[in-house]
Design a protein that fits this description.
Blueprint (H helix, E strand, L loop, with lengths): L1 H17 L11 H7 L1 E4 L7 E7 L3 H12 L1 H6 E7 L7 H11 L7 E5 L3 H5 L17 H8 L3 H6 L9 E3 L6 E5 H8 L4 H8 L3 H13 L9 H8 L7 E2 L2 E2 L3 H4 L1 H10 L11 H5 L11 E4 L1 H11 L7 E4 L10 E5 L6 H12 L7 H7 L15 H5 L14 H10 L9 H16 L5 H15 L6
Parallel strand pairs: 2-3, 2-4
Antiparallel strand pairs: 1-3, 4-11, 5-11, 6-9, 6-10, 7-8
Helix pairs in contact: 1-5, 14-21, 21-22
Length: 459
């Protein structure tokens, strides 16, 4: 709580500019306008009630706009005021915290939080601001059961009192996304059922596959960041337990996994989200690589956009270990005076399994008309009745892999500090594998960084 209060104080000056985004002076400093990104109010009668929607991208606001389009009676009563603040430089959370704490007419009624910091709003320092789904008028237990929502997303969205305060709309259970031609050249098959046996289960089998690929001149992954999310989110314990830093044995073993990948030349030693990592998706790296770890969004919005001539030469299979990566949770504000309206929108986004629900349209690529991007969704029921065939995957139905993937994901190993701690950890692992420091020094430096920067006990 002390950390939250200090963040709120720090945010005051920035929020005074951001919260009134639609009135932001065009001559304001670039960093202010970039952080504010967009604040708009829909046109309509001034007699309408205003619903304040806060997010870090335009994805959730566009969903709310779609709900109004599909529900004209609702739209006749409410107008939406949208505030979008990018997570760049950590701008979104302080502004959101200030808006939630200030309350009043301009406070958020509905807000979004991503996996990197969702625990803060469901179970951590800011959890008191989130309304329970039951308080929003949602028959949440029955709806969750009917929709077949993956347990990990429920666990993450449940507050310390055991009540659901947030759910997502995407399914972010992970798979292994691989090149069909490289699999065929190495093992004589590109069948997902067979490739899953070649790369797993477990890391020993994964490294056996890496050696076989190396003999053919291929890498198994682009860089050590690719298996990291599988390691991180398959671990048994979170980074912080009862206020103390915990290094789960599976996460500590990543030091050795990463070094083995580098020392044996099993990858191109790229860093995720940098140019060389993207280049490997279209065979522009030092050697061709078999694949990447990730959920459906990794296929649709990352690899497909960077695949070049490799488009259509991909498939997905079960990974060596179950994991999830990313996702956005939708929450209602405990202080909102329009909880019923907020609940109707949130239920449509997260739990409606009908063909008119967000989930069905999202899964089948019809949200904005036919021919849109198909995506894995939170509802297993919806995916089971949807067509997940993708041209990018040579016609494979990705839902055959992503439905079971969700069941193996673990949502009980996260903390509100993960974004920061993961950055410290990844930096130290790379320093170790590069030979810049010993394994012991990397561990000690990591612990010191956590102790110096977070309100966490380090032993």
């Amino acid at each position: 709580m002390r950390k939250l209060i200090s963040l709120l104080l720090i945010a005051m000056m920035m929020f005074s500019l951001v919260a009134c985004g639609s009135n932001t002076d065009s001559t304001a400093p670039a960093e202010t306008t970039a952080a504010a990104a967009e604040t708009t109010a829909s046109a309509g009668s001034t007699e309408k009630e205003v619903l304040n929607v806060w997010s870090f991208t335009d994805e959730v606001p566009k969903m709310v706009e779609k709900y109004l389009e599909l529900n004209p009676e609702f739209a006749a009563k409410y107008e939406i005021k949208t505030t979008i603040i990018a997570t760049t430089d950590g701008a979104y959370q302080p502004a959101l915290d200030q808006a939630l704490a200030s309350g009043g007419a301009d406070a958020p009624d509905l807000f979004a939080a991503e996996a990197a910091f969702i625990l803060k709003y469901t179970q951590g320092d800011a959890s008191q601001f989130a309304a329970t789904y039951k308080d929003l008028g949602i028959d949440v237990d029955a709806k969750i059961a009917d929709a077949d929502i993956a347990q990990y997303t429920i666990d993450i969205g449940t507050n310390p009192n055991g009540e659901v305060v947030g759910l997502g709309y995407q399914a972010t259970g992970g798979a292994f996304i691989y090149r069909r031609s490289i699999a065929k050249d190495t093992w004589g098959t590109d069948d997902p059922a067979e490739i899953s046996k070649k790369i797993g289960p477990g890391w020993d089998q994964f490294f056996k596959a890496a050696e076989e690929l190396k003999a053919k001149g291929y890498g198994i992954v682009s860089g050590d960041g690719d298996p990291w999310h599988a390691v991180e989110n398959s671990s048994d314990q979170p980074w912080v337990v009862d206020g103390k830093l915990v290094i789960d044995p599976k996460r500590e073993a990543f030091l050795d996994l990463s070094k083995k990948l580098k020392d044996n030349g099993y990858h191109n030693d790229t860093q995720d989200w940098q140019d060389a990592w993207f280049a490997d998706m279209k065979d522009a790296g030092a050697k061709k690589i078999l694949g990447y770890f990730g959920p459906a969004w990794m296929i649709n919005y990352v690899i497909a956009n960077n695949a070049g001539d490799t488009f259509g030469d991909w498939a997905v299979c079960e990974p060596p270990v179950g994991f999830f990566w990313g996702g956005t949770w939708v929450l209602g504000s405990a202080s909102s005076e329009k909880k019923e309206a907020v609940g109707q929108i949130i239920e449509w986004i997260t739990l409606d399994t009908s063909e008119q629900g967000l989930q069905y349209m999202w899964a089948n690529g019809t949200l904005n008309g036919p021919g849109g991007t198909k995506d894995a969704v939170a509802s297993g029921k919806v995916m089971s009745i949807s067509n997940g065939e993708l041209e990018f995957l040579a016609g494979q139905n990705m839902f055959d892999v992503f439905i079971p993937a969700n069941q193996f994901a673990n949502g009980k190993n996260l903390t509100q500090y993960d974004e920061t701690i993961n950055r410290f950890w990844r930096d130290q692992v790379r320093a170790y594998t590069a030979g810049e420091k010993s394994r012991e020094a990397a561990l000690e430096d990591f612990k010191q960084m956590v102790a110096d920067n977070l309100d966490v006990t380090v032993e």
